[in-house]
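To: structure desk
From: M.T.
Subject: fold request, one chain
Message: Could you run this one when you get a chance? Sequence is below, nothing fancy, just the single chain.
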Amino acid sequence: MVRYLASLFVLLLLAGCASVPKPGLLQPAGESSAQELCRKYNIECRWDSVSQTITMVYMDKTIKALVGSDMVVIGKNRIALSASVYRKRGAVIFPPDFERAVFGPAVVPQEDYVKGAQSGRLKKVVIDAGHGGKDPGAIGVAGLKEKDVVLDIARRVKKGFEAAGVVVVMTRDSEDFITLADRTSIASQPDVDLFVSIHANANKSRGVNGIEVYYAGALNRDDRSEDQRLANQKKICSLYNMRSDIPDLRAITSDMLYAYKRAFSPGLSEAVARGLAREVPRQNRGSKPERFFVLRNTLIPAVLVEVGFVTNPKEASLLKDNDFRQRLAEAITKSVLRFVYVSGF
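Reply: Done. C-alpha cells follow.
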C-alpha cells in the first residue's frame, strides 16, 4: 500500500516533456516498449526522466505509468499489471498484459467490436458519399475525381457495417447528384444513430497530405434559423408523432438532439482520425470542428472524413488503388465500432 501511494503521488503530481527513450535491442516475448506503442497507436507520449514516468494520451484518456511500479493510472482509475514497468538500454518496457489492459478494445478481435455495436445503440448508420453526378468534387492528379473515389470507399464501408449487423442507408449509391439538403433529410429519421460523410481533400500545394476528420461545432443564430434545419426539425417531430405546429416544442427537441450530437461527435471524430492514421497509415491532420452544411444540419452525431488529398501525387496514386481503398473502409468501420464499444454510445 505504501508503494502504491508513493507511486500514485508521483504519477499525479509530476509531469515532463522530454522525448520518449528509444527501445532496447532485445526484450522478452509479449513485452512492448513505450516507443513501439506510441508509434502503433499514433498517440502522444511524454517521458519525464526526473520522476521516471511515461504519460500517454489515448482517446481522451491520460495514462501514466511509473518505472519500477506494477500499477498504471488511467484517468482516475488504477490497473494492476502482471509485472513492473522497467527500463532496459534506455527504453521503457511494459509487461505483456499492459497493451490489452490499457488500450483494451484497440486490440480485441473484430467479433468483439461487433458485439460492442450490437450491445449498444448502433443500429442504423447513414453513409454519405460526397458529391456525385454533375458535381465531381475535387479533381486531382491525372484527373482523379473525388466523387468516384469516395463512392467506392462508401460502398466498402457499407459492407463492413452490414457484416457487423448494422443497417446502412446510403445517401447515394450511384452516379446520381444528391443535394446537400436531401442528404441531411435522409439522416433525419428517429432510428438513425450516426451520419458518416466521406470526402477526399484538395490543396493548391501538391505537397499537402494526410487525413482529416470534422465534426459540428456550436450553432450560431443564423444556423438555428436555417431553412433546412427547420425542415429537419419538423420532419423529426412528425416522425415522433409530436405536434409540429408548436415552434417551441420543435426547438426544444432539436436542441436536445443537438446537445446529444455535440456530446458524442468530437470523440467519434477523434477516434476515426486516430484509427485511420494508425491503420492505413497516413499523416493525422487531426479532428476539427467545422460548419459544413451536412454537419450543422444533421440532428444526430455526425462526422465528415477526408480520406486523403487527390492533389498530392502519392496520395492520389494510393486513392486509385483498390487495396488502399479497402484498408481505408475497414479503418473507418473499425474505428466507429471501437468508439461504440469504448464509449457505450
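Reply (cont.): The chain has two domains: 2-105, 110-343. Let me know if you need anything else for the meeting.
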